[in-house]
């Protein structure tokens, strides 16, 4: 089976926007559609609480006509049009969709950050992990989120194997970003966030990319939009992951970043499993 995850940074902008960046986003959607994945996970959809309008849904179905759609948006008391996630799965797959709360600090559970699909042989979870924010103002709450999320995945893993993916907003090791020496106090590379990710892996999960590729350098999934040369210079971070239960790690066939062309921000990531 094939899976793709992408932080799309506004579904509306990607589907119906008219800016040059929207054109680049549609090019990425074409790339994703060409992979013909069984399940596609999108983060940071930024949809309103009511979901897509008819124009957006038509545009999305033009890319993925053979997939069912499940989504969850940020809702009060959380900010409107913030965060949000979406899952698309091939029609005919026996999927039961859940939109869980994990007991995270308010209002994180209301920000539309989690979708879990149950299939006969495994759980598929997608996540948009909260960012620690400017000045690390949300770091304490992020640490609680990391703990609650690890507990949640562990509960799933006790039932059947787990495939989890998304924007985890953390570069786990120094090899996972271009300039670790100057980022130890930056959101996404604090000791606290890295420790939280280490504990998540220690709970029985494998980083599929490192499992296949080892310590290859220069492999990133995100390049800052604010720095024009970040992608040209490959000054990036690897903050998007496919994690799998340890007991199915040897079933990983592919785990890689997909080419997103000149578009900065997140690249899609792909996982292929042979069950």
Describe the structure.
The protein is α+β, with helices and mostly antiparallel strands and 275 residues long. It has a single domain, classed as Endonuclease/exonuclease/phosphatase (Deoxyribonuclease I, Chain A, 4-Layer Sandwich), CATH 3.60.10. Helix content is 26%, strand content 24%. It contains six helices and 14 strands. A six-stranded mixed β-sheet has the order 3-4-2-1-14-12. The protein has a six-stranded mixed β-sheet with strand order 5-6-7-8-11-9. Helix 4 (139-159) packs parallel to helix 5. The longest helix has 21 residues, at 139-159. 41% of the residues are buried.
What's the helix and strand layout?
Blueprint: E1 2-7, H1 11-16, H2 20-35, E2 39-43, H3 54-63, E3 67-72, E4 85-90, E5 96-98, E6 114-118, E7 123-128, H4 139-159, E8 162-167, H5 191-202, E9 205-207, H6 208-213, E10 222-223, E11 240-245, E12 252-257, E13 265-266, E14 269-273
Parallel strand pairs: 1-2, 7-8
Antiparallel strand pairs: 1-14, 2-4, 3-4, 5-6, 6-7, 8-11, 9-11, 10-13, 12-14
Helix pairs in contact: 4-5
* Total domain count: 1
- What's the overall geometry? globular
Question: What series of H and E elements makes up the topology?
Answer: EHHEHEEEEEHEHEHEEEEE
Report strand %.
Answer: 15-25%
Largest beta-sheet characterization: 6 strands, mixed
User: What is the fourth-level CATH superfamily?
Assistant: Endonuclease/exonuclease/phosphatase
* CATH fold field value: Deoxyribonuclease I, Chain A
Classify the helix fraction into a percent range.
25-40%
User: What's the CATH architecture?
Assistant: 4-Layer Sandwich
Number of helices: 6
What is the highest CATH level, the class?
Alpha Beta
């Amino acid at each position: 089976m094939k899976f793709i995850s992408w932080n799309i940074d506004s579904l509306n902008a990607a589907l119906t926007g008219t800016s040059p960046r929207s054109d680049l986003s549609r090019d990425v959607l074409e790339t994703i559609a060409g992979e013909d994945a069984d399940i596609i996970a999108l983060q940071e959809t930024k949809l309103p609480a009511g979901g897509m309008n008819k124009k957006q849904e038509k545009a999305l179905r033009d890319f993925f006509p053979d997939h069912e759609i499940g989504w969850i948006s940020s809702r009060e008391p959380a900010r409107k049009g913030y965060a949000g996630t979406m899952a698309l799965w091939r029609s005919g797959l026996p999927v039961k969709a859940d939109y869980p709360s994990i007991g995270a600090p308010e209002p994180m559970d209301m920000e539309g950050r989690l979708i879990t699909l149950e299939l006969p042989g495994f759980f598929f979870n997608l996540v948009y992990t909260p960012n620690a924010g400017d000045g690390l103002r949300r770091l304490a709450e992020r640490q609680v989120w990391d703990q609650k999320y690890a507990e949640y995945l562990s509960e799933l893993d006790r039932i059947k194997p787990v495939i989890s993916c998304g924007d985890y907003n953390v570069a786990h090791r120094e090899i996972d970003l271009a300039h670790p020496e100057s980022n130890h106090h930056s959101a996404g590379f604090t000791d606290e966030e890295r420790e939280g990710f280490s504990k998540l892996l220690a709970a029985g999960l494998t980083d599929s990319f490192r499992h296949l590729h080892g310590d290859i350098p220069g492999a990133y999934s995100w390049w800052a939009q604010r720095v024009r040369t970040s992608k040209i210079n490959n000054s990036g971070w690897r903050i998007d992951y496919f994690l799998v239960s340890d007991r199915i790690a040897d079933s990983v066939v592919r785990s890689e970043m997909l080419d997103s062309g000149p578009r900065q921000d997140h690249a899609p990531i792909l996982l292929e499993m042979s069950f």
